[in-house]
Amino acid sequence: QVQLVESGGGLVQAGGSLRLSCAASGRTFSRYAMAWFRRAPGPEREFVAAISQFANTYYTDSVKGRFTISRDNSKNTVYLQMNTLKPEDTAVYYCAAKSVGAPTTPPYDYWGQGTQVTVSS
């Protein structure tokens, strides 16, 4: 079983940057696809970005060109670099992991507790 712990959230002004980190436990981190989701006020979480075990990356259209997902298997960590932040990026950001299936499709098997990102204007 994988445990995920997010960090790096905070309050920034529009146009600023944040880097989120997700530290993972488990024996087989390198075999997992990893993803970031976010939940703004509303009924459902939103897919943000994913990275496969082969380091292929995927993004939702609203963050393309601004966000970058990466992983460091030697540190069991996945990152989300967020640049040119907008107020609409405000949400709780969650790290997730899955062992099988396409990186951009549900379900994900393991979830972190989330970290708050607030973008002011």
Helix and strand arrangement:
Blueprint: E1 4-7, E2 10-13, E3 18-24, E4 33-39, E5 46-51, E6 57-59, E7 67-72, E8 77-82, E9 91-98, E10 110-111, E11 115-120
Parallel strand pairs: 2-11
Antiparallel strand pairs: 1-3, 3-8, 4-5, 4-9, 5-6, 7-8, 9-10, 9-11
Structural summary, described in words:
- This protein is mainly beta and 121 residues long.
- It contains no helices and 11 strands.
- The strands form 2 sheets. Strands 2, 4, 5, 6, 9, 10 and 11 form a 7-stranded mixed sheet that branches. The chain has a 4-stranded antiparallel sheet with strand order 1-3-8-7, with no helix packed on it.
- The N and C termini lie far apart (40 Å).
- The model has no long low-confidence stretch (mean pLDDT 95).
Strand content: over 45%
State the helicity in percent bands: under 10%
Number of helices: 0
Q: Describe the sheet with the most strands.
A: 7 strands, mixed
Rg calc: 13 Å
SSE sequence, one letter per element: EEEEEEEEEEE
Number of strands: 11
C-alpha geometry? globular
Separation of the first and last Cα atoms: 40 Å
- As residue ranges, the low-confidence spans are none
Query: Average pLDDT, to the nearest integer?
Result: 95
Secondary-structure content class: mainly beta
Could you give a quick summary of the protein structure above?
With 121 residues, the protein is an all-beta fold. The chain has strands at 4-7, 10-13, 18-24, 33-39, 46-51, 57-59, 67-72, 77-82, 91-98, 110-111, 115-120. The termini are far apart.
